[in-house]
Design brief:
This protein is α/β, with parallel strands linked by helices and 361 residues long. It has eleven helices and 14 strands.
């Protein structure tokens, strides 16, 4: 399977390593800055020769010249949708880094065009493949929680000025959004996936408390009401002092409860289930960073989905659901009232530009 990568920023080594681990034929990479490609190769630290890797500064030129079977996109968030559509319209199977788009109508366009061109599209919510997350999901699918009551996701990380200075698109409404769109969207995806998916109502607050040099929020909290009656809370922040603290995912039911922890929901901290079940409390999956180990499994599943003609484990609809949740929280926070889901009008992160009256560099 011929593979190409578009975008060589912070997360791109995970894409390259996952493609390599799955035996993809890595033919080309694209970035407007050639030094980013060198940096990605250094950080990936793969034991292979990439001297024959074709390099491009324009992804359309790369797509037309190389004609890859599969492309993954690791560009700045504001460019995800256009790059994805350019791939899809050429009949190329496409794996998009989160968020899949910054505007709901763009997510819908990606889904529609994928159907029109018979193309498989997935989104990189790789934490679904965490070992701890998989244990929780197995328990939910088996009914071990009983009737679901409520849940919570807390993402408490640190991002300082040096992080935002590394790339001028970060923290801006049109190209990135804030902590909910960038850092917390993985947890939001897990929360919706675990508690039933379909939301009825969202109420949220967002603020910019410690990062006056960005446009968007650095703290967001919300309450979610699901169609099945379950409720949940969201807390996402980059305001932890000096280091990442934790990412916790908790789910509670009539017969079971589970709390995942660690820096990226990679440990089982509480596991209370019917006595016949194996106790996996204390399970710890070692990870090098907050991205976890899931990219390799996600890429493997995606390639198998392409070969088998099925939906990938994390499909475009899942990516849209996570995006819709963040945008609903933004809308609720801006308007000071609950937002009903599904959202029937188009909405984009940039609709909230100027909310915090911040001057950007």
């Amino acid at each position: 399977m011929k593979y190409a990568l578009i975008g060589c920023g912070r997360v791109s080594p995970n894409h390259l390593k996952a493609a390599n681990a799955n035996g993809f034929d890595i033919v080309a990479v694209c970035d407007t800055d050639n030094s980013h490609i060198d940096d990605m190769l250094d950080r990936a630290a793969l034991d292979r020769d990439f001297s024959d890797l074709h390099r491009y500064a324009d992804w359309n030129e790369m797509l037309d010249t190389e004609k890859p079977d599969l492309v993954s996109i690791a560009l700045p968030s504001g460019l995800h949708a256009q790059a994805a559509l350019d791939c899809i319209r050429r009949g190329i199977h496409t794996l998009i880094e989160k968020p899949m788009a910054m505007r709901l109508s763009d997510a819908d366009k990606i889904i529609e065009e994928a159907k029109n061109h018979n193309v498989t599209v997935g989104v990189c919510h790789q934490n679904r493949f965490n070992i701890a997350v998989q244990e929780m999901r197995k328990a939910i699918d088996a009914g071990w929680f009983g009737q679901l009551s409520h849940g919570a996701i807390t993402v408490r990380w640190c991002r300082g000025k040096d992080y935002y200075d590394q790339a001028d698109w970060r923290g801006k409404w049109a190209s990135d959004g804030g902590t909910l769109m960038n850092q917390c969207i993985h947890g939001i995806d897990l929360l919706r996936w675990m508690l039933g998916g379909e939301l009825k109502e969202v109420f949220g607050f967002t603020e910019r408390r410690q990062h006056p040099y960005i446009e968007a929020e650095d703290i967001g909290v919300a309450v979610l009401k699901f169609a099945n009656g379950a409720v949940a809370t969201v807390e996402g922040t980059v305001n932890c002092a000096e280091r990442n603290l934790e990412e916790h995912l908790s789910v509670f039911g009539t017969t079971g409860m589970c709390k995942l922890g660690g820096t990226s929901a990679n440990t089982v901290e509480v596991w209370q289930m019917p006595h016949a079940l194996e106790d996996v409390s204390g399970l710890i999956e070692q990870t090098e960073n907050v991205y976890g180990n899931g990219h390799t499994s996600l890429f493997r599943d995606f390639a198998e989905a392409v070969r088998d003609g099925r939906k990938p484990y994390v499909d475009a609809e899942a990516g849209r659901s996570a995006l819709e949740t963040v945008l609903a929280i933004y809308k609720s926070a801006a308007e000071g009232k609950p937002v009903t889901l599904p959202m029937t009008e188009d909405c984009a992160s940039e609709d909230f530009a100027g909310r915090f009256d911040v001057l950007t560099k």
